[in-house]
Write a structure and sequence with these properties.
With about 450 residues, the protein is of the alpha/beta class. It has a domain of about 230 residues: Amidase signature (AS) domain (Amidase signature (AS) enzymes, Alpha-Beta Complex), CATH 3.90.1300.10. About 40% of the residues lie in helices and about 15% in strands. The protein has an 11-stranded mixed sheet. α6 packs antiparallel against α7 and α9 packs across α12. It is globular.
């Protein structure tokens, strides 16, 4: 049914870069056989899933939305993919994304943008717009995203779906093509909180292949999503991101949901996180710094594309690298490599990267203090509903501002979830409600999220 749905709508939505009908059907049949043979199966056995193209999949092209990896077929599976397969989940295909997960609209994909199923002239968010659009358009019941500064939560908000960024280290990063290694986290994109919890439980947990993976059991997310009880919980509204300056319809829906939590027995307190103001600036130094280093491996020697410089008979390795990187990387990737290389260069390191790391510490402290006063914190997920394709493409700063509410969680490593929060008055488009919890307390996201559903 999902393959049929993809065949009928994906030419308009373009959520997928590649569909693996044969592989998905074979995996589904294997589950049927296991069931017939009386084997015990997990709760998601046979449920198909779409996977963001930044996650490596054995035998299935993986490009991270970039021309530089066009046609690259990985020889191994990411740990989370191994877990999906072991859970009997057929992989429908790979979803579109901003190149190397840099962006908030999926327009930076080298393979053309994804369209928001709510209005095809609008962006589906980014970088994981393909995963959220696939779920919103009923092309897949579940999808995997990755979130470095909001790329699961912001697409969830603008497509009216659920997206969770687990605690840093909660889901193995082994086999994710790294954007910024200290910020990256993979997580679920779904239509309900319980679906997200079930998927979180499949992909989460310790992995010896990732040295930053948390060596503890997955938090009890399914139990929390089933219980959905907020009575007696303290909910912190962050003064600095309570919706002031956001689209008025988004602020209104946010306030209504906060009231709903009060009606369900929660207590609301206001908390202040003064350093969050500097989050965006710190993020857009730390991320390009790490990315410029991570992307150095795309050198024309090891993976994907290789182009020789034009008009040179026997080019040097450097000339091949330069020509390949020039042809293979898009403008946004080049912009961030230049920014990051500059921020890390001798003489500027302390002024930029060093300062940004200090802000990161201040943000983590703001969170610590806030979580002394509240069990979870809440904000609107994104300042606007889905904007028109092309609207912010030529204005990087306008694009970066979308991430103002999502970035602090990545800088501090704490978990976050975006929930569908109704349609904004102005344009009738979906908005998102963000919940943030202390590190390793991911279950609180599900407890509160399910109570609001
Ligand atoms: N919009 C953010 C950026 O462009 C989000 C990136 C992400 O989470 N992968 O960096």
């Amino acid at each position: 049914a999902h393959l049929d749905r993809i065949a009928s709508v994906d030419s308009a939505v373009h959520a997928f870069l590649e569909v693996d009908a044969e592989g998905a059907l074979a995996a589904a049949r294997a589950v049927d056989d296991a069931f017939a043979a009386g084997q015990s199966l997990g709760p998601l056995a046979g449920v198909p899933i779409a996977v963001k193209d930044v996650v490596v999949t054995k035998g299935l092209t993986t490009t991270a939305g970039s021309k530089i990896l066009q046609g690259w077929v990985p020889p191994y599976d990411a740990t989370l993919v191994t877990r999906l397969r072991a859970a009997g989940m057929p992989i429908l295909g790979k979803t579109n994304m901003d190149e190397f997960a840099m962006g908030s609209s999926t327009e930076h994909s080298a393979y053309g943008p994804t369209h928001n199923p709510w209005d095809l002239e609008r962006i589906p968010g980014g970088s994981g717009g393909g995963s959220s659009a696939a779920v919103a358009a009923f092309e897949a019941p579940l999808a995997i995203g990755t979130d470095t500064g909001g790329s699961i939560r912001q697409p969830a908000a603008v497509t009216g779906t659920v997206g969770t960024k687990p605690t840093y280290g909660g889901v193995s990063r082994y086999g994710l093509i790294a954007l910024a290694s200290s910020l990256d986290q993979a997580g679920p994109c779904t239509r309900s909180v319980l679906d997200a919890a079930l998927l979180h439980a499949v992909i989460g947990g310790h992995d010896v292949m990732d040295s930053t993976s948390i060596d503890a059991p997955v938090p009890p997310v399914v139990e929390a999503a089933t219980r959905a009880d907020v009575s007696g919980m303290k909910i912190g509204v962050i003064k600095e991101i309570s919706g002031e300056g956001f689209q008025p319809g988004i602020k209104k829906l946010f306030d209504q949901s906060v009231q709903l939590l009060v009606d369900r027995g929660a207590e609301v307190v206001e908390v202040s996180c003064p350093s969050f103001e500097k989050g965006l600036a710190a993020y857009y130094l730390i991320l390009p710094s790490e990315a410029s280093s991570n992307l150095a491996k795309f050198d024309a020697m090891r993976y994907g594309l290789r182009v020789g410089p034009e008009g040179v008979d026997s080019p040097s390795a450097e000339q091949v690298m330069a020509a390949t990187r020039d042809a293979g990387f898009g403008d946004e990737v080049k912009r961030r490599i230049i920014l990051g290389t500059y921020a890390l260069s001798a003489g500027y390191y302390d002024a930029y990267y060093g300062q940004a790391q200090k802000v990161r510490t201040l943000i983590a402290r703001d969170f610590e203090r806030a979580f002394e006063q509240a069990d979870v914190l809440v904000t609107p997920t994104a300042p606007t509903t889905a904007f028109k394709l092309g609207e912010k493409l030529d204005d990087p700063m306008a694009m970066y501002l979308n991430d103002v509410a999502t970035i602090p969680a990545n800088l501090a490593g704490v978990p976050g979830m975006s929930l569908p929060n109704g349609l904004a008055d102005e344009d009738g488009l979906p908005s998102g409600f963000q919940i943030l919890a202390p590190a390793a307390k991911d279950e609180r996201l599900y407890e509160v999220g399910a109570a609001l559903e």
